[in-house]
């Protein structure tokens, strides 16, 4: 265990080390995004949130995540650990969202505090789900590209949800809608 502690960047490392070749993901092909949902992450900064979002995408069968160029590095050790292996099954692309989103030509759903109730939303079978920064939400230049603003209805007094938790709830609702 002492050897693992020496090479790990974590204060409390796991008892196992995995050596994985960094994959070369396929170039983002807009046609491959049709007939399904993909996640779009706008400036996600917390490595734990990023890893949890990747793991959530894997759980719900989301194959592609498109990240803004200022989103945390997917190979940050904390991100890799939080994915619990899902990083090997989900394609993560970094791009200028303002340039890429208009070219994809799919419905763009954005998680906002002032959106349409997700339980009344018809998601269809394809689209992009945009999740924003932990403290600032979706940036103004990306918000302009959203075709449907959606929200998870609040019943309590909390001001907001953690972005990874909100992503899981929204992915669950999108998946539930597609199974009708």
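^ Assign residues to that structure.
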């Amino acid at each position: 265990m002492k050897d693992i502690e020496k090479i790990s960047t974590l204060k409390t490392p796991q008892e196992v080390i995995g050596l994985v070749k960094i994959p070369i993901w396929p170039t983002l092909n807009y046609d491959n995004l049709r007939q399904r949902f993909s996640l779009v992450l706008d400036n996600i900064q917390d490595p734990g949130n990023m890893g949890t979002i990747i793991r959530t995408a894997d759980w719900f069968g989301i194959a592609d995540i498109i990240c803004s160029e200022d989103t945390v590095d997917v190979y940050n050790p904390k991100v890799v650990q939080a994915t619990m292996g899902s990083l090997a099954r989900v394609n993560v692309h970094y791009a200028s969202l303002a340039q890429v989103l208009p070219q994809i030509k799919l419905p763009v759903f954005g998680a906002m505090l002032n959106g349409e109730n997700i339980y009344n939303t018809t998601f269809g079978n394809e689209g992009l789900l945009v999740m924003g920064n932990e403290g600032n939400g979706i940036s103004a230049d990306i918000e302009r590209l959203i075709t449907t603003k959606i929200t998870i209805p609040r019943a309590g007094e909390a001001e907001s949800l953690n972005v990874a938790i909100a992503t899981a709830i929204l992915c669950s609702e999108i998946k539930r809608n597609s199974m009708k």
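The chain has one domain: 29-178.
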